[in-house]
Write a structure and sequence with these properties.
227 residues, mainly alpha, 2 domains, 10 helices
């Protein structure tokens, strides 16, 4: 277990590194020492991967600097943008062989920060989020720039924006409960399988994500038509 933990930072492939980290937790039976090794090795790899991609880190920082300026004086504002930057910077290793962000990545990160931006709670914000979601996916497929970083950022953007909009602006308790359950269930399921098996499972099938997408459309429509 110790030798596996020491070699985590040497993995070039992010999935292999993640599996090695999860094996530390599994073999250590989620004990405090195993959790400490997991956090230490994960942090070391994340910082090293960010340092190895200075251009991507500079682009990420410039984008969030602009978002930070736009978020001034708003709630959740600067804390939201700062959290977005930290999470993205710590996962730059998921870019794999790429050294910079793509247009699709940029659109995804803007979507994730809509709650902090002017108009983030406007009637049209839900439709804007859906439009950005469709646009970044199409761009990534058209230009062949899909990456684990894009997948991670897309999942984060959906969870962050739609949970914020639903819990803060959806009056129906039934819709709130159904939406949060639909968005949380795939994440909880994948996490539980990964921790139990000591390896990352395959991504959920699109059919399993359709309820979440349908609820996004419902919440966006209700938000648009609400006075």
């Amino acid at each position: 277990m110790e030798s596996a933990a020491k070699s985590v930072s040497e993995y070039a492939d992010s999935r292999a590194a993640t599996d090695a980290l999860l094996s530390v937790l599994r073999e250590g039976r989620m004990s405090p020492p195993a959790l400490a090794r997991f956090m230490s090795q994960a942090a070391h790899r994340s910082l090293r991967q960010a340092a190895d991609r200075p251009r991507a880190l500079a682009e990420l920082t410039a984008l969030h600097g602009l978002l930070l300026a736009l978020a001034a004086g708003r709630r959740p504002g600067r804390r939201w943008v700062a959290t977005s930057w930290a999470l993205a910077a710590l996962h730059l290793g998921l870019l794999e062989r790429r050294e910079r962000l793509t247009t699709a990545d940029t659109l995804t990160l803007i979507r994730a920060n809509l709650p902090a931006l002017p108009g983030g709670a406007s009637r049209w914000s839900g439709l804007l989020a859906i439009t950005l979601d469709l646009a970044d996916g199409r761009l990534a497929r058209r230009h062949g720039t899909a990456s684990p970083f894009g997948d991670y950022a897309d999942t984060f953007a959906d969870a962050a924006y739609w949970t914020w909009l639903t819990l803060g602006h959806e009056p129906s308790r039934t819709v709130r409960a159904a939406a949060v359950a639909a968005w949380a269930l795939p994440v909880v399921t994948v996490t539980a399988i990964a921790l139990r098996g000591g390896a990352m499972p395959e991504r959920p099938r699109p059919t399993l994500l359709r309820p979440a997408a349908a609820l996004q459309g419902l919440v966006a429509l209700r938000h648009l038509t609400r006075r």
